[in-house]
Design goal:
Elements lengths: L3 E5 L3 H18 L2 E5 L2 H10 L4 E5 L8 H11 L4 E6 L5 H4 L4 E4 L5 H12 L2
Parallel strand pairs: 1-2, 1-3, 3-4, 4-5
Helix pairs in contact: 1-5
């Protein structure tokens, strides 16, 4: 089972860290992580690739617009699982109860593998 993941975040450091895990996740689980830096690039990726999971940052350029981006995605692609992420746990209130929320450490290789195992039932 292949799980395609979209990471929406405007921080290049986060993208670099997750991209470094991409090869390992692809080899072990057949998963691919795609990147987007905002709503427009996210929608382009979603049109090009069938996604199973979206991680969406809370804040873009200091504005808490992640939940708005998630709402737009859900309108078009209601079947995709969306998880809000942030280094600031106080933003959890912006996501719940409509969406899952996790701290950004969920994007480490160890935590991504744990989540993928959970999704595919290993």
């Amino acid at each position: 089972m292949t799980i395609n993941i979209l990471l929406i975040d405007d921080d290049p450091i986060i993208h670099g860290g997750v991209k470094s895990n991409n090869e390992c996740l692809h080899e072990r689980y057949g998963s691919v992580i795609y990147s987007a830096t905002g709503e427009n690039s996210a929608l382009r990726q979603l049109k090009k690739h069938e996604m199973d999971l979206v991680f969406c940052d809370t804040s873009f350029d200091g504005i808490d617009m992640g939940p708005e981006i998630a709402n737009r995605i859900r309108e078009i692609y209601p079947e995709i699982r969306i998880i809000g992420v942030s280094t600031n746990s106080n933003t959890r209130r912006l996501w719940e109860p409509e969406y899952e929320f996790r701290d950004k450490d969920c994007l480490t290789l160890k935590n991504l593998e744990k989540l993928l195992k959970e999704i595919i039932g290993r």
